[in-house]
Design brief:
- The structure is a single chain.
- This protein has 262 residues and is mainly alpha-helical.
- The protein has 2 domains: 69 residues, Multidrug-efflux Transporter Regulator, Chain: A, Domain 2, CATH 1.10.1660; 154 residues, Globin-like.
- The protein has 13 helices and 3 strands, in the order E-H-H-E-E-H-H-H-H-H-H-H-H-H-H-H.
- The protein has a 3-stranded antiparallel β-sheet.
- The longest helix has 38 residues.
């Protein structure tokens, strides 16, 4: 058939799949006007020109069921549809720009942890803050689910958000130091409340289960940096907090001896 092309050749020229052309045919959007003696669909030059317009409107986001009407519509109706598409595209571009900025922040948080400028970090996190801590944490846990959670939350946080998180953790440390000085025994109801306050504060960084809290508490005793932080708050606090956390874990069905990072 002179001047006609098969479905495969037309699909390739339009950059769509054969399956898409078959779907448009079934929907009545673009019906091939010819067939071979064997029953294969064949598209004329006019059919291809119509298909090019179908692809244009589809790429502009026009719902498929509305495309046939636009193909045969007058100039005013087509212009109104195009103006509407343009408004929607502008809104979509703004949304995508927001998404792009969010992805950029998430990538930065994956790399650096905290997105607060280094000169501002002592004001946000307190005088005891060490700017090297996020980097050290990434070296230890950069491949973990918890680092991913930490980065995702960091990407969404402002300096004010981080300050609130820091205050919450400091308050949990202060509560533990006060309990120790008051002679509160690990395993008591009061010590359990302190342990829970600590776990909730840690969960602002990543989801912290009772088992994971036990693992963290071990590092408070064995890691010099952590131990110094708690000992500065109150002599003996690192060990007291570890015992309080372990007792609280038992009360929540976790054996500290087999606790693991989840």
């Amino acid at each position: 058939m002179n001047g006609f092309e098969g479905v495969g050749a037309v699909a390739r020229s339009l950059g769509v799949s054969v399956r898409t052309l078959h779907h448009w045919h079934r929907c009545g959007v673009a019906v091939p006007s010819g067939r071979t003696s064997n029953g294969y669909r064949m598209y004329s030059e006019a059919d291809v020109a119509r298909l090019q317009r179908v692809v244009l409107f589809r790429d502009l986001g026009v719902p498929l069921q509305r495309i046939p009407g636009l193909l045969d519509a007058g100039s005013a109706q087509r212009r109104a549809e195009l103006e509407s598409r343009r408004v929607e595209l502008a809104e979509r571009i703004l949304r995508l720009q927001d998404v792009d900025r969010a992805v950029e922040r998430l990538l930065a948080a994956e790399e650096h942890g905290v997105l607060v400028p280094v000169p501002e970090q002592p004001r946000v996190f307190g005088a005891q803050w060490d700017p090297d801590w996020p980097g050290q944490a990434r070296e230890l846990w950069g491949e973990s689910v918890q680092w991913a959670q930490y980065a995702e939350r960091s990407a969404a946080r402002t300096e004010a958000d981080w300050h609130a998180v820091s205050v919450s953790l400091q308050e949990s440390t202060d509560a533990a130091a006060e309990a120790l000085r008051a002679g509160v025994l690990p395993g008591s109801t009061e010590a359990g409340a302190v342990a829970e306050q600590h776990r909730v504060a840690m969960s602002e960084y990543f989801h912290c289960t009772h088992s994971m809290q036990v693992v963290l508490a071990r590092s408070y005793v064995t890691e010099p940096g952590f131990r110094a932080y708690y000992e500065q708050a109150a002599p003996g606090l690192a060990v007291w907090l570890q015992l309080a956390i372990e007792a609280n874990a038992r009360n929540h069905g976790v054996d500290p001896g087999t606790a693991r990072w989840e």
